[in-house]
Queue: 4 jobs
Job 1
Amino acid sequence: MKEGIVLQAVSGLYTVHARDQVYDCTLRGNLKKELNYTTSASFARRVTSARRPFARDVLSVGDRVRFVVTKPGAGVIEEVLPRRSRFVRAGFRGREQTIVSNLDLLVIVFACAEPNPDLWKLDRFLAAAEQEGLEPLIVANKRDLVSEEQQRETFREYEALGYRVLPTSVRESLGLDALRDALKERVAAFVGPSGVGKSSLLNAMHPGLNLATADIGYTTYKGRHTTTAARLIPLPSGGWVADTPGLRQLELFECSREELEGCFPEFRAHIGRCKFDDCRHDTEPGCAIKRAVEEQRISERRYRSFLALAAEVSRR
Ligand SMILES: Nc1nc2c(ncn2[C@@H]2O[C@H](COP(=O)(O)OP(=O)(O)O)[C@@H](O)[C@H]2O)c(=O)[nH]1
Ligand SMILES: [Mg+2]
Ligand SMILES: [Zn+2]
């Protein structure tokens, strides 16, 4: 038996990638009943799919599988390995839909300039990564347009929070090896505003595949409604990049106010220490979060970022 990863899943047919080769696979008939989804003890949303109907959610892009080769380039999937994570979104008629399994790295790309980095937007992506239990990697691209000092200064506060910041330049081939290394053996998604160089970075790591077109994603038509399919792109240097429009517009998904607090790592030590149990950390007296802001243990800017996100979350 071979082991591989599902790159594409279309109407019961799976493209499985194993050691630089792809196989068109079907699923063993009685496999559906045996699927046993488990997940790591990370901050990620718990996998409870065992109680959900499997009919539409048997296997997804990113699942690791064992399969037998039945003829050159084709096989039958015999076993699905436990899922480490499950990235879901509301699908058709609001039904929860697995978009990518085993996604574990969120590459958040911003440019040092052109366009100037919007740190409020960066905070949103980081909060979403925290909520999904994804490891974030901040890429500060177009480093060639600013000095090293300016790049460091702009992203310093994130490093202080413990996030990894990787300066890159596609133009000067800077940091690309480090990015390749960070992606190895991982299932990653690239997010960030348009024009920051996401496609350029992917093309630089994957010459030969023009990702400018892949950026749009693609659509399959099934009956009356339209679904947008996800796929994984294998990188020659190792690792897979998830390509789906739904991921690119990543936002906080069904996030409660309480959950949002935990998505700001510097808040965690102060949570539960406010005078009121239902403190919104806004105008209430005896607020531990506001005290931490006054004592400069939480930055004023990140605090205001939290309030802006909290207002949005509670409005939903
Ligand atoms: N100066 C500079 N320009 C870059 C760099 N990376 C990408 N660009 C340019 O930025 C523009 C947007 O890049 P693109 O990859 O399409 O961004 P995307 O929208 O995030 O996919 C293009 O004109 C690129 O040539 C870089 O490292 N330095
Ligand atoms: Mg692009
Ligand atoms: Zn408070």
Job 2
Amino acid sequence: MKRMYPRFLKSATAASQFPPPGPPEIAFLGRSNVGKSSLMNALLGSKQAHTSSTPGRTRAINFFALTDAPPRRDQPGRHAQLMFADLPGYGYAKLSKSVSAQWPEFIEPYLRDRPTLALCVCLVDSTIPPKASDAQLVEFLSSVGRNFLVAGTKADRLSGNGRAQALASLRAAFGAEHVLLCSAKTGAGTKELWQAIRDAAEIGPPR
Ligand SMILES: Nc1nc2c(ncn2[C@@H]2O[C@H](COP(=O)(O)OP(=O)(O)O)[C@@H](O)[C@H]2O)c(=O)[nH]1
Ligand SMILES: [Mg+2]
């Protein structure tokens, strides 16, 4: 799989700071520690992408522009094919169809209104039973008509039988067609995830 090259665009903590809608955008959501940074790095094949450990950026939406060729100094504004949006990770305990107390107020409008948002990748730890809060997030995304995918993370920690059970319980919770298992550690599932991203963004296979 030919890689894509991420370029950090900006960190936004208000709707007025979102970059202008451009190419199709993929949002990554999940509770802290679910493995979001690891999985994004596995998808991008780089450690430069994730900035969530940078102070001040953890409560922000971090936007990345992706191109299918390395950035060139002489073409700084090179056309991006895709955008990744790394959303703040923490408990969704209070998330509901109405505004959440814990969820920064710009997140819900982002998920509801962002015109170029093509897919929400919801990360759920496959090694523990799905949480009610994960279901609430997915319910919210469904209620606003968003295309979503549930990626069960850390699947390398499960045995073959454990993976089958985890897949079954995630499918029962979120709908079979929306679920896949992955591992940032082994790379398992990342090809399928890329395919789902490309399908949602309606961009062709890598050249
Ligand atoms: N075994 C295993 N551990 C993982 C995987 N992905 C993340 N982790 C571990 O889970 C912890 C949280 O990962 P991180 O990517 O920082 O989570 P984030 O808070 O969602 O960004 C770290 O200790 C990672 O090493 C995975 O695919 N397999
Ligand atoms: Mg992180």
Job 3
Amino acid sequence: MNQRDSAWPRLNALAAEQDVSVALLQEARRPTSALDGWQVHPPIGEQERWRITVPGRYRAADGTLKPTRRNFASALASRDGVVVPREPTELHDVVDGEFACSHPGQFAVGDVAIDGGPRVTVISLYGIWDRMLDSGTMFPEATLHRAISDLTPVFQERANDYVLVAGDLNLYSYSDGTVWGRRGMTVFERLAAYGLETCGPFRRDDEPRLARCPCPDPACRHVHTFLYQSKPTNRPHQLDFFLATPALRERLRDCWADPDPHWPLHSDHRPIFAAFDL
Ligand SMILES: [Zn+2]
């Protein structure tokens, strides 16, 4: 949602166009008012939960400590009230054996109940940037691995045949042939150990290859989902993915990115969609 207030009315429009029942959101700012027809989690009234509160401070250029600027969170939005949220507790406060989170606001989890269908657990996941102490280079895999650790009891539940993870993983350099790429790929590898594999969006056979994709794959199937600062001259990347368990992947009907060519007007990320027969 690119931390934009205008992302909420945009969600409304996209949901109508693409027939969306559940939206997994990242970099979402707290809505300023109730949203007609939508159930939103975290609750709109709980201001503190619309921030990533760990790390809680950053050091400004003048050396002083200031409160985090990450005034956004991962969120779930559903129409028809079908999602039952699961609430993690910040790691240092959690009761032993209960559901914890290292970076409150990094992910949002809920169970979707479907009449006559399976329970589907949906997870909106965001790759928070860490910064190298020496070079200042940024990397997201460390915070993603913390999230995977937090989510392990969810992934391993016996009742969880149907799990969907979606989000802006911020894994820029995966498979670009550098050591950063290999480190980024560990996130996908670790999720695969829980049965979670990418189910899209992939480039369709009749679509041209993504120009300037950093990956070395001659059969690259990446789809453009991110444009830094929405500037057309910047290199296109795919940072946004759906990953699903085998049973859920079998139910996948289609997966695609927003067909609107003007998507960078609304966000630096392109919305992605998945449809399942449940
Ligand atoms: Zn590629």
Job 4
Amino acid sequence: MSACADCRELAVEYGLALTGSRRPNANPRRWDLPLTTTRVRLDDHLITTHPAWLPDRQPGCDICEAWRADYVIGPMDEAEALHRVEHLCEPLREICTPGRNELADLM
Ligand SMILES: [Zn+2]
Ligand SMILES: [Zn+2]
């Protein structure tokens, strides 16, 4: 996907928080707030600006499967949008571990 400037900035902020929180000597309490705020900002941006990017319900995911059984027609509700954005951000969570530098490429 080709990110707009906002996505890039928000993803990098969230990625830096993720990487920092995963360092071996990281204090989880120190990272709680930055992780939550940067993630909420990224999620909000993706859901409101790029709803077309949200992936379909993922096979093998219990939460997606539950929705599949209970199919709703019409706009997806907020809980589902938030869950789908979680799938969308999975690759970001994978690359943001200390010692990998894919995030640097994104910047
Ligand atoms: Zn964007
Ligand atoms: Zn799912």
